[in-house]
Hints:
Strand content: 5-15%
CATH class of the domain at 69-148: Alpha Beta
CATH topology of the domain at 69-148: Nucleotidyltransferase, domain 5
Helix content: 25-40%
Distance between the termini: 131 Å
Mean pLDDT: 77
Amino acid sequence: MSGKRKRKGKLKAIRFGSIELPIAPMIDVVFLLLFYFLVSATIQKQEADISFSLPGRIQQDAPIEMPDEQIVRVLANGQALVNDYAYDSPENSRYRQLETMLNRFREASESNQVEARITIAPEDDAKHEMVVKVMDACSHAGIESVTFAFAR
């Protein structure tokens, strides 16, 4: 067997030696990247840190002259009017604008130490569904004193 090797049935794995990855330079790079991002980042103030005061409600010692009752007219087409101002559309499932106004009316009445009262005045040919929507708006606004006015 001069210079020739015989191959057996199994192949041997070729080894390239051990490959070493230097860890110290990678840690240095990680710290440099961390330092870069910390320096380049901008710190934003949160909204809670901005000092301002919100307007609040103050309790009145003596009641202020204000109407103790609001009259909500319900027209035949389903439109709800308060002081000749139309709220919401009759096609809406709820009168949300009316609820908001009635809620403010209730809060103002409580601040003035008077009871908030609502009178619902539907026209003769107004649908009952629209009157119920106004009653729901009063309920959602927290107004419990609701009366009805009918034309004679």
